[in-house]
Amino acid sequence: MGKKNVHLVAMLLLLVLFGSSCMAQAVLNDKQATAQTTRLYRNMQKLLQKGYMFGHQDDLAYGVGWKYEAGRSDVKDVTGDYPALYGFELGRLELGQAANLDGVPFDSMRQYIKDIYQRGGAITLSWHFNNPLTGKTAWDAPPPGTVAAILDSPATHQVYTQWLDKGAEFLASLTGKKGEPIPIIFRIFHELNGSWFWWGGKNCTPGDIKRLYQFTETYLRDVKHLHNLIYAFNTDRFSGPDEYLERYPGNDYVDIIGFDIYQRKGGVDGNRQFIQELDKSLTTLVDIAQQNNKLAALTEFGYNGLPDSSWWTNVFAKGIGTHKISYVMGWRNAGIKDDQHFEYYVPYKGQISANDFVRFSQLPQTLFQKEVTKVHLYR
Ligand code: BMA
Q1: Cys staple from 332: which of 31, 57, 181, 279, with CB 3.0 to 4.6 Å?
Q2: Which fold, 37-375?
Q3: pTM score of the predicted model
């Protein structure tokens, strides 16, 4: 190759490299996002090269057989480290109640969130808010029309915005040592392709839920001036890209895309099917994320009661494989609930999958608190 050609090839290579790194750079939609929020999002993107953060819902509030013990966590009891990401739930905040629908006091939640931020963990919030048309719970889906009523009926609209005001007040109270707002991955209207919540599936039209998503985000950002929110759009399990995108409010409203999935069938077949479904769905998700410059995440997962002693490394980690996702979040360790049903998705000390969970936590691609503290998510 002549000298000229070498230069030409080198320039082309630089262009390709520069071009692809530019394309890969996802940017938050909120142009006024706080410095810490922008940094968290950027650092989450960088972390994709290392692996995925492990998250757990209500991790610090309670676990199997215990409640509200300072510093305790089932994840830490088993692995010696906290999760890297922590989920909390806002349901009943809209009613002005002191505790959420699972009994977690909002004052404690605020303190957990401050402590987590202080040690460099990431926080995500969901909101099973009541039905503003019927006044019943989030699961009160029929009659259809709640979403349309929020958009079009002044009375329902007012109830809804008053609820958002209460949410905004709590969100604004989440501040760091210097008064800076703590960044929150906000997972509103979760599982919106399923029909079990008033905002999902056949309980509203895709057009209406998109409008409500857009309205809600615009209201929180421009009327309530919240600039610490990273919006995570998420469906439940889905059949393919068409179903996934049917209710997508648009690239200008979404920063992270994810889905929720639970394993319900056990045994060799159940495991195989779960690995295949995870792999297939993550392939689609990460494709969509790359095409739209978004981050991908497994926003909620679980296998209730963890009856398989090698589930973490043999099933879950295999399903995730090498897909480039930012985090995975296990749902809550409620233990035995008031209705006598048990519910937990992360092992407690002595649980049969506990040893395997330790092995899982030691895989190079799984990130827990100590690892993310080192990289300074907010710096
Ligand atoms: C569900 C269950 C319920 C809980 C609700 C909201 O998946 O865990 O027990 O009340 O989430 O957190």
Answers
A1: 57
A2: TIM Barrel (3.20.20)
A3: 0.94
